[in-house]
Design a protein that fits this description.
Elements: H1 8-17, H2 20-29, H3 32-38, H4 44-51, H5 56-64, H6 68-77, H7 80-88, H8 92-101, H9 104-110, H10 116-125, H11 133-136, E1 142-144, H12 150-160, E2 169-173, E3 179-184, H13 185-190, H14 199-202, E4 210-211, H15 216-226, E5 230-234, E6 240-245, H16 246-264, H17 279-306, H18 322-345, H19 354-383, H20 391-394, H21 397-422, H22 432-458
Parallel strand pairs: 1-2, 4-5
Antiparallel strand pairs: 2-3, 5-6
Helix pairs in contact: 3-5, 8-10, 15-16, 17-22, 18-19, 18-21, 18-22, 19-21, 21-22
């Protein structure tokens, strides 16, 4: 039994009996993420009746751990007043993300019921393009002035802490909101013994920040590179706009990893979870790639048909090794593509490194091709045309082809993602099944060409 099914009968019994105390205790006894997981199998109205038994702050925290599709269902089915109150208690960036997914009719009913200051904040954040730092940031952050003392800073934090997403970093700004420095909670606590010390003397003026129009991938790289819990977002004049916290960066990286994995597997990325995606949508996302791969397979069949008649018509044993040849090329190409795509994503390489990458892949392809070719040669001697005195030479068709195809596969698997990266396309679009399909055709042409040279040439 899955863990999130354990509490379902008890929760429904509480709902049936009107056990207010039990439902309130359930909402407050566990971490909000665990509570959301246990409630995920309740339908939306049952879950809402449970959530009504906790305070608005805890309710919004639990709600934030629901899957995006479930959040949208909640907001669209709740009464506008309840939905507006729920959205008001969410962090600013989460509010905007949610309202982007909710239907326009529901948004039109909810927005007028949200306080003016929060509604203005929503419109402000909606100005930023998707996939930029501005769209990821929250405008709730701890702000201090240089002239403030440690005692003043502690008082400010005491009043702001409940409304902030994180207080580990406090950002020092001037009266025009220009970012001047940053002070960590650790440094502030360390200075408690000097309550009259100025924040300007304690702050770190070397602040890592990102521009509001910076791409979200760059934000993730900066947070990872400098091991930050949050990173400030500034405008062109270096005015403080907001912060992006590490949990938002983690969510982005998980989403990116899932999309990359789906693309590498030859599936167009899903906009929703697998179980919530409709069958037609799943079929379309998979079918669009399968059609391309199927056409590639037809090209392989066409290449084989081209060699059906002619000097190789009597060498039927060659057919036995077609799967071996094309799989060795496709697998080596897929390996290279996976390595290069992952290295590009991690920032370990750039397209400017193409000379080093080519040399490394060709060397690897040569070494791998030699080993696989030796195995293939022994198999060709065993399964090939016995009794033919030229068989030892004819059997060389297999190892020579394997060597060439593996080198071709590693080269193509490495270069195509680099080309895609150079022209601004997602390298993951050059998925491993797609590369394997290309190598299949190339492998057949190489195999048959080598066979003609060796078999018809030798006799």
């Amino acid at each position: 039994m899955q863990p999130n099914t354990l509490y379902i009968p008890e929760l429904r019994e509480m709902l049936a009996s009107g056990d207010d105390h039990g439902m309130r205790e359930f909402c407050e006894a566990l971490h909000p993420a665990a509570t959301a997981e246990f409630m995920s199998l309740l339908n939306w109205d049952e879950a809402w009746r449970v959530l009504e038994h906790t305070d608005p702050s805890n309710r919004s925290q639990i709600f934030s751990f629901y899957e995006p599709e479930q959040q949208v269902e909640f907001v669209e089915k709740l009464a506008p007043e309840a939905a507006a109150a729920l959205i008001t208690d969410l962090p600013p960036d989460d509010r905007v993300d949610l309202l982007e997914e909710v239907g326009p009719d529901a948004v039109a009913n909810i927005l007028p019921l949200i306080p003016d200051s929060i509604r203005r904040n929503i419109f402000h954040l909606q100005r930023y393009s998707e996939d930029t730092a501005g769209s990821m940031m929250t405008t709730d952050f701890a702000r201090l002035e240089e002239q403030a003392t440690v005692s003043d800073a502690l008082s400010v934090l005491a009043t702001q802490a409940a409304d902030l997403e994180t207080i580990y970093y406090m950002y020092v700004v001037d009266k025009q909101d220009h970012l001047r420095g940053v002070l960590s909670a650790r440094d502030l606590v360390s200075a408690i013994g000097r309550p009259d010390s100025m924040i300007g003397d304690l702050m770190d003026t070397h602040v890592i920040s990102v521009d509001a129009d910076e791409e979200d991938e760059e934000v993730a790289e900066q947070v990872a590179k400098y091991d930050l819990l949050a990173i400030p977002v500034v405008d062109k004049q270096h005015r403080m706009l907001g912060i992006i916290t590490h949990d938002d960066v983690i969510d982005f990286m998980r989403e990116q990893a899932m999309e990359e994995t789906q693309r590498i597997g030859g599936v167009a990325p899903l906009e929703e979870s697998y179980l919530r995606a409709s069958i037609p949508r799943l079929a379309w996302n998979r079918g669009s790639w399968l059609i391309l791969l199927f056409i590639g397979a037809l090209l392989t069949a066409y290449a084989l048909d081209h060699y059906r008649e002619g000097p190789l018509s009597s060498a039927a044993w060659l057919v036995l090794f077609i799967p071996l040849v094309i799989s060795s090329g496709g697998n080596s190409g897929s390996q290279s593509a996976t390595l290069i795509i992952s290295a590009l994503s991690a920032g370990q390489i750039t397209p400017n490194d193409w000379i080093r990458i080519i040399s490394r892949e060709l060397l690897q392809g040569f070494l791998l091709g030699l080993v696989l070719g030796l195995i293939g040669y022994l198999a060709a001697l065993w399964l090939g045309e016995s009794g033919n005195p030229q068989h030892y030479i004819h059997a060389l068709t297999v190892p020579i082809t394997v060597l060439l195809v593996v080198m071709c596969g590693t080269l193509m698997g490495a270069m195509l993602p680099l080309i895609f990266e150079r022209i601004g396309w997602d390298p993951a679009l050059m998925s491993t099944p797609f590369i394997a399909g290309i190598i299949d055709v190339v492998g057949i042409v190489i195999y048959m060409s080598v066979a003609i040279l060796l078999i018809s040439g030798v006799g």
